[in-house]
Amino acid sequence: MKKILTLFAVVGLLAFSGCSDDDNDNVDYDTVGTVYENTSNNYYNFNPSSNPLNNFRVRFVFPQRILDSDVVLVYRYAGVDSDRDVWEFLPETHYLNNGTRNFSYDFTFSDSFVDIYLNGNSLTDPELDDYRFNQIFRIVVVPADFAASVNKSNYLDVVDKLNLKESQIQEIKL
């Protein structure tokens, strides 16, 4: 009986020593991220509204509720530099030439939606038209522990670490 128990112990030891923890790899198979974008076919324009809840604000409702432990990151398309898209991390503040704050993009989120809004001084000023009209956003949903371990201000770093391809970005309507 003792030999059988020893044999089981040795077989069990060999079986469990063959298991590996993917956290030691360079690829994280446990982290799942999702990216949503309103494409150039669906630009968003920030406009004044008689409804204070919609004033210079847009809401995106997630197709399914996100987990309580998920974090939402929002990026605004800012143009192209050296043939690469530039994505600015929100909140994003713009200043006047004298150094005072002019306006900001910001956002709030819950487990079912994200609101992106523009706030500041003289938001209907024609000088802000490039910032109010034809805006494209990417909304990235990631686990909180992932968000704590990545440079959130760098969109390319985030999607690279999530191992997401452009073809995996889900088109949305804002």
Q: Mean pLDDT, as a whole number?
A: 82
Straight-line distance between termini: 70 Å
Coarse structural class: alpha+beta
> Helix amount, in percent?
10-25%
Radius of gyration: 23 Å
Shape verdict: globular
Q: Can you describe this structure in just a few lines?
A:
This protein has helices at residues 2-17, 129-132, 144-148, 155-161; strands spanning 34-37, 57-61, 70-81, 84-89, 92-95, 101-109, 113-120, 137-143, 170-171. The chain has 174 residues and is of the alpha+beta class. The longest helix is centred in the first third of the chain and has 16 residues, at 2-17.
Q: Can you characterise this structure?
A:
Helix content is 18%, strand content 33%. By secondary structure, the protein is an alpha+beta fold. The chain has one domain (22-171). Strands 4-3-8-1-9 form a 5-stranded mixed beta sheet. It has a 4-stranded antiparallel beta sheet with strand order 2-7-6-5, with no helix packed on it. A hairpin with a 3-residue loop joins strand 6 (101-109) and strand 7. The longest helix is centred in the N-terminal third of the chain and has 16 residues, at 2-17. The relative contact order is 0.24.
